[in-house]
Amino acid sequence: MSTMETVRARRSVRTFSGEPLRAEDKQKIMAFAETADNPYHLPITWMLLDTKETGLSSPVIVGEDTFIAGKMRRVPHAEEAFGYSFERIVLFAETMGVGTTWIAGTMDRSAFEKAVALSDGEVMPCISPLGYPAAKMSVRESLMRKGVKAESRFAFADLFFDGSFDRPLRAENAGKWQTALEAVRLAPSAVNKQPWRAVVCGERVHFYEKRSKAYAGSDWDIQRIDMGIALCHFALCAEESGVPVSFLQEDPGLETPANTVYIATYIAE
Ligand SMILES: Cc1cc2nc3c(=O)[nH]c(=O)nc-3n(C[C@H](O)[C@H](O)[C@H](O)COP(=O)(O)O)c2cc1C
Questions:
Q1: Residue 249's beta-bridge partner residues?
Q2: Which among 10, 11, 12, 218 is the best mutation to test ligand 1's pocket, defined by most ligand atoms within 8 Å of the CB?
Q3: Ligand 1 — pocket residues by CB below 6 A?
Q4: How many CB atoms lie within 10 A of CB 146?
Q5: Per-residue DSSP letters for 23-61?
Q6: Radius of gyration for the chain, computed over Cα atoms and rounded to the nearest angstrom
Q7: How far is it, in rounded angstroms, from Cα 259 to Cα 269?
Q8: pLDDT at 17
Q9: CATH 3.40.109.30 occupies which residues in the chain?
Q10: Top-tier CATH class for 156-268
Q11: What is the pLDDT of residues 240-251, one digit of tens each?
């Protein structure tokens, strides 16, 4: 399965079959997680949490027996780094037929933080259930998907731009960046807000976060996790489509729309 196929196949799974996650699948996921670096090279500690041993659950998830959680130092760019590395694990799980759902909100956060022994100065941004998808979604899951319009995404030209923010870029004009940008477009995001924007300037693609008003003013920016997910999809699918890229943070100083902030750049090598 190519990464692009995996990106297309993935969806949040909130109804699991009830079959416990097999030991060999746990082992493969944890072995992969150890290698799931991010462009900021920030280390993250991954843990599997057994629901029977810990009593942990999420009100939106049914039939799961295992969660994965990650914790890290609360430092600049922790959000993007976490988003990037966790999405790599999510995509890896998908290739194994293991379903996931990014969860930042719908959990008893203090119970999960206790279970991972979170210390001062650390954050546990998100968790996910890990398990085998049930044949049929629960009614609650179907309603939740409708509530956030989980099946839909913004159009390519609403998200991506050619040289400056006043020139929308259509997929057919995106050249070698088309596949990687399409993978960004399809990414999961908190409440499906899709905050990623990108401006293509020749060999460089500059990524921006369009912050939703609802999240403004917080020192912990959940939409930067979404940005990390977007960077992950972009880098993996660019490489796969024959365009190796390198990462840098160097604001090109473009004029930006309101509430739109520079995050990072990828350059074709
Ligand atoms: C950072 C982040 C946090 C999320 N938090 C939650 C959550 O707390 N509860 C939940 O049910 N879904 C959560 N989601 C899942 C999104 O609602 C979902 O990805 C989005 O609606 C798109 O649907 P899809 O993943 O099926 O493509 C989160 C997603 C992301 C990326």
A1: none
A2: 12
A3: 11-12, 60, 101-106, 126, 144, 148, 150, 188-192, 222, 225-226, 229
A4: 10
A5: HHHHHHHHHHHHH---TT----EEEEEEHHHH----TT-
A6: 18
A7: 30
A8: 97
A9: 156-268
A10: alpha beta
A11: 999 999 999 999
How many angstroms is it from 11 CA to the middle of ligand 1? 9
What distance in angstroms lies between residue 234's CA and the mean position of ligand 1's atoms? 19
The residues, any chain, with a CB within 8 Å of residue 242's CB and separated by 6 or more, are 176
Task: Give the pLDDT of residue 218.
Answer: 77
Q: Where in the chain is the domain with CATH 3.40.109.10?
A: 3-140
Strand (E) positions, 104-162? 122-123, 127-130, 160-162
CA of 206 to the centre of ligand 1 (A): 24
Nearest CA to ligand 1 atom 12: 103
- Using alpha carbons, list the distances in angstroms from residue 53 to 16, 49, 65, 115: 18, 8, 10, 10
CATH numeric code, 3-140? 3.40.109.10
Q: Which two tokens stand for residue 184?
A: 């960004």
Nearest CA to ligand 1 atom 7: 103
Ligand 1 atom 15 nearest Cα: 102
Q: What is the pTM of this model?
A: 0.98
Give me ligand 1 centre to Cα 38, in Å. Answer: 20
Residues of the chain with pLDDT under 50: none
